[in-house]
Amino acid sequence: MNALTRWLNGLSERERLMVTVGGVIAVVLLLLAVVLPLNLAVAGATSRVEKKQSDLAFIESVAPEVAAAGPLGGGGATTESLVVLIDRSARESGLGASLSSTQPNGDKSLRLRLDRASFDLLVGWLARLSEQHGVRVESAEIEGGGEPGIVNAGLVLRTR
Q1: Which residues of the chain fall below pLDDT 70?
Q2: Cα–Cα distance measured from residue 49 to residue 43, given in angstroms and rounded to the nearest whole number
Q3: 131 contacts 106 by C-beta, under 8 angstroms
Q4: How far apart are the first and last CA of the chain?
Q5: 3-state SS assignment for residue 143
Q6: Which of 5, 34, 46, 90 could disulfide-link 95, Cβ–Cβ 3.0 to 4.6 Å?
């Protein structure tokens, strides 16, 4: 420290002023370049933690309702036969006219054919079958039906 003081005292007044101003500028730059970004990062992390804590509190508040509803919102495996379920749900989804054939394909499995079906209706129907009745798509062959959004599909569906 003594060497620094001697060095500063050895400078002319103008040089001391330049060194002092340079030091102040260096400190300000250090604050702007290092401390400010760190402070912003900490504030952002704090905000994310508060949001996640809020989400956790919400999830914990609805967890008993979700648990009471059972797996997949109360869906799980269905008690009606797969053939009946597929026929009924296809009609309810607007795909009844497109369902051209169904054929049992082993235990808990069904092979079916849909001709000239709306792709959007087909995807929604398959999602509902999975979520509400525990039916999964084992295999699918989907080809264009000649018009945009219309498909022909061969599916193998299986209950869980």
Answers
A1: 69-79
A2: 10
A3: no
A4: 79
A5: strand
A6: 90
pLDDT digits (tens, 9 = 90+) for 117-144: 999 999 999 999 998 888 999 999 999 8
Is 109 in contact with 135 (CB distance < 8 Å)? no
Q: Which two tokens stand for residue 127?
A: 């999602």
3-state secondary structure 87-107: HHHHHHCCCCCCEEEEEECCC
- Alpha helix locations (H) across 12-145? 13-30, 36-69, 82-92, 119-133
* 3-class DSSP state of 108: coil
Tokens of 150: 């219309």
Contact 103, 114 (CB under 8 A): no
